[in-house]
Specification:
- Helix content is 71%, strand content 0%.
- The protein is an all-alpha fold.
- The protein has one domain.
Length: 251
């Protein structure tokens, strides 16, 4: 049913509009500096001109920093909550699709589902733990989500090469492979730069974090093709599989 393509469309739309709206609000309220700004100071106490833009470490436009202060923090939490829920649904539905079309890759698909669930949980934790007050939990959730997402994208790309669902895998597989490479390298560079103390490196970390988010939104949009062939009865396979596993254990 074509109806199910609403899930990847909703995820990409909500996460894209929500994240950039949070950035816009933070920028308008002078809580962060623009992404195209590269000039930072150690302190703004000696700045005589209050109308002049003064940027410190606290104003580097990380996605987390954009969602720290009011009023944008509420939209930040809502965006991540909605995104993590939709992403979890998407992972479950994709697993059911694999079980229906290529059950021989069920184990690989379960591994992908596991990393997808961990990704969604990490994003949920990051969204509900404000980095201004619960910094450790927020960054732990974000780190788990970013790393798990790389593994999820890698396994899904492998399944795209091996499993035939839509008949357009010869187009989807290369696209997802490129997106997965971008995601993986951006994650590595983000972590490396985030751990530095220089302003330039931290600003680069912010840029790579935004690349991560945008690339994820693009990656999820590729699910539109596969979800065009999804049908509700496929979800019954998840229940059926559990029943079969229980009967094997009891026997």
């Amino acid at each position: 049913m074509v109806f199910w393509i609403i899930i990847p469309i909703l995820f990409s739309s909500i996460s894209f509009i929500g994240s950039w709206a949070v950035y816009g609000l933070a920028l308008a309220n002078k809580h962060v500096c623009p992404l195209n700004n590269w000039e930072y100071r150690n302190s703004c106490q000696n700045t005589s001109n209050t109308s002049e833009l003064c940027c410190t470490d606290a104003n580097i436009p990380m996605i987390s920093t954009c969602g720290t202060n009011e009023p944008e923090n509420s939209l930040f939490t809502a965006t991540l909550n909605a995104g993590s829920f939709l992403f979890l649904l998407l992972c479950i539905f994709h697993h059911a699709h694999i079980l229906d079309r290529n059950s021989s890759y069920a184990i690989v698909s379960r591994v992908a589902l596991f990393f997808g669930c961990v990704t969604a949980f990490g994003a949920f934790v990051a969204g509900n733990c404000n980095p201004g007050s619960v910094r450790l939990l927020h960054y732990m959730g974000a780190a788990v989500s970013f790393v798990s997402l790389c593994f999820y994208a890698l396994i899904v790309t492998f399944l795209t090469w091996r499993c035939y669902i839509s008949g357009l895998e010869h187009i989807l597989a290369p696209i997802r492979m490129i997106s997965t490479v971008i995601q993986s390298f951006s994650t590595i560079l983000y972590i490396v730069f985030f751990l530095q103390t220089e302003h330039t490196y931290l600003h680069l970390a912010a840029i790579f974090e935004w690349i991560l988010g945008t690339n994820l939104q693009f990656f999820i949009l590729t699910y539109i093709t596969e979800f065009s062939f999804f049908s509700t009865p496929m979800l019954a396979l998840l229940i059926k599989t559990k029943d079969e596993e229980k009967s094997l254990i009891l026997s």
